[in-house]
Amino acid sequence: MPLDATRNALVLPMLGLLVEQPAHAYDVAARLAGRYPLLAGTRSSVTTLLKSLAGADLVRARDPERAGRRPARTVYELTAAGLELFRNRVGEGLGEGPPASAAFLTALAYLGILPRATAAAVLAERVERLSRELTRLPPDPPELAEIQMIEVAYWRTVLHNEITWLSTLVPRVESGDLAWPGQARQ
Questions:
Q1: pTM
Q2: Residues forming a β-bridge with 76
Q3: Is the pLDDT confidence value at 167 over 50?
Q4: Which residues does residue 77 pair with via DSSP β-bridges, in sequence order?
């Protein structure tokens, strides 16, 4: 686990789940596993991270609540500082997350937490950055067999596809075609 618990890969989606609704550790772990199966996180990891986030005043622990015959559980809710951190991390993940990475994908899942104009600008900057990276890739040397540079061909395709997809997404965000939380589709 990183020394700064907020840098743990589970924190961004955990905060996102708490934006949706306050929850106890078991619920957060279950929803995390259901929504993000590629992120390995145990219930104890989630509990430890929630306690660390509470210690940093990013989430607030409510008094334990009992539901039916179940044991009392501590419900966590996001604080204003936690929401600010969440928004910042979404922006970072969208702008700086490596192509085709879990960091980018989890940030993309919460695109709507950003103001529409900010989201469009961050994604447009990403398109520019990835386009520069794509143009810097070496051409396939004719003297080498394709198999010797197969990873470059793969990376070129990954970058091209992400650029293409984002280039259609940015205008949809800007125009209002993509519905935003709390707003009707325009």
A1: 0.87
A2: 23, 61
A3: yes
A4: 60
- Judge whether 127 and 156 are in contact, CB under 8 Å: no
Q: What is the band of 1 on the pLDDT scale with cuts at 50, 70, 90?
A: very low
Tell me which of 3.60.20.10, 1.10.10.10, 3.30.420.40, 3.10.20.740 is the CATH number of domain 5-88: 1.10.10.10
Tell me the per-residue pLDDT of 51-97, one tens digit each, with 9 for 90 and over. 999 999 999 999 887 877 888 889 999 999 999 999 999 999 999 99
Sheet holding 23-24, edge to edge: 23-24, 75-78, 59-61
- For the chain, the three-class secondary structure string (H helix, E strand, C coil) is CCCCHHHCCCHHHHHHHHHHCCEEHHHHHHHHHHHCCCCCCCHHHHHHHHHHHHHCCCEEECCCECCCCCCCECEEEECHHHHHHHHHHHHHHHHHCCCCCHHHHHHHHCHHHCCHHHHHHHHHHHHHHHHHHHHHCCCCCCCCCHHHHHHHHHHHHHHHHHHHHHHHHHHHHHHCCCCCCCCCCC
Mean pLDDT of the chain: 92
